[in-house]
Amino acid sequence: MIRRLQRENREFAIVLRTMGIDSQSFLDTVRPVFEGKHPDFHDIKPIEINPNIGQIQRFDDDRISLTMDDHIYDNEKMIYEKLSSLRGINAIRDDFVYWQKNKYECYAAKPLWINLNDIHHHHIIFDDNIRLDSYDDCIVNIRLLNSSDIRKFVNVHFNSYKYFKTTSILQPNLVELLNPDIKLNSNTNHYLSMIENAEKCYEDLLKEKRKYFFDIKDISENNKIPIHIKYSDNKEKINRNESDEDKNHSHFCGVI
User: Fold this and answer.
1) Prediction pTM value
2) Residue 122 in contact with residue 247, Cβ under 8 Å?
């Protein structure tokens, strides 16, 4: 996957998102590969590895902070901008204690920030614990930019995660990943195929010129897609209006 992205001169970042304490081990393990010192990966161009492991902290009042590179990002707009600016290989530890305290429900899990007005960055998360049949056993919390208040991201209701299952929250097929024939053939790389499909779906989403504005009313006329939003215990929907932007996004931020 990385070979292909480099051949295509793509801008990308890879971020290990873990609930555990394996971030440093991950960075130490991949360092020889991305520093050009591993004999089996000599054709991969050197990639910068960020040694500073980020830490996400979640609070009972729904606030989220990210500590990374000697700075505390204490609002979600800043966090989104920080993640969008990353390059190379990075690692961030998520807040397992908060997820556990909230009985493993998706709204307390790993936050994935999505800004559908941003045509230049595409954030994707891969995880084998993405389950769309159970909100209390899904490891991703989709946070969508509130276009009526660009400082705020809000929880997408679990019932509407399905709208993002092909664009942003991707569950790898572990059977395919362990297939030696597929592993040896870079043209059928499982992750790469998922990214290519996600980009096409995300581009379609943006080309439909959607801008999302939050409204307390149920709006379903004119074939508008009802995307439920969770504000604490209230379920609300958002409406979309047309945008003038019709450009292709040029950068994606891959999140593992």
Assistant:
1) 0.79
2) no
